[in-house]
Amino acid sequence: MKFGVLQFFSWPERRASLASVYARALERIEIMDKGGFDAVWLAEHHFSDFSVCPSVHLMGTFAAARTRRLRIGTAVSLAPFYHPLRLAEEVALLDVLSGGRVNWGVGRGFARVEFEAFGVPPEESRSRFRETVEIVLKAWSEERLTFAGKHFAFEGVEVLPKPVQRPHPPLWVAATSESAIDWAASRGFSILMDPHSSHREIREKRAHYMEALRRAGFSAEGRTIPVARLLAVDESAEKAALVARRGALWILNSYLGAQHRPVLVGEFASKGVDPVERYLGEVILHGTPDSVEEEILRLKEETPLDYLLCAPLSHQSFLFLADKLLPALA
After folding, report:
1. pLDDT of residue 256
2. Taking the model in full, what pTM does it have?
3. Cis bond upstream, residue 304 (ω within 30)
């Protein structure tokens, strides 16, 4: 089983300087490079202090410069907010500068505030996302790009640089909804699985994806499916539970934002489920190193799980992951 880290750049209550948030993240990335981690996956967000990283490609160049073997993943490049040619150039340049170490994760986005601020109509998000992915892949694989679509048209454009990895860096599509999973499978794309679904939902979505792949005539052989899981690990179960609860509250109040939280709370309240308790009981892996190791082994068998993409909810959780869990499980 491979391990990666989903690296957020959270700025809780803005207690420390933002520069120190970036410095701590880069220190972690150096630890990952020296350990047995496969990749760091950088989370792109805008207009929120949940994670202040508006450019995963720029941050990726810093990560590449600090490392030698660690792969640099984007989780994700929010495709609807980019001009597709600029996106193709930036990811290819990162691949060149990193010596061919890019894992390209691409997603559609969901936060209304991002669409409004960038002037992208939310109802166009699906078509812009899919068209942009198609253009980027063609820009990388063809000497000169000619394309005519709903949103973009190009004639004979030479997009440079080309990526080091040929025909292009490995691609993962962030897919949460059934329609997104079906589209990714219909194109033969691998998927990234989100950190907010329950363990049961992840298992069901993965099975649905595998069946959709089969129906589309694609093989699952040799395919790696990273599953993102929030992680809270400490020396006692009680301390870990406090970290997990704090993380759940932070996600609900900050990441999802005021526009999304009432919808989420209403969705689960109608089922008699408290959203925070749902995160604690069904989403976040939390406990001592030994208990979390047991839970990961259980998920590995039940899901099945071949790539655990960990999102530590505290620096202590990251250190336990690097020092205890990874040596025992990788």
Report:
1. 57
2. 0.95
3. yes
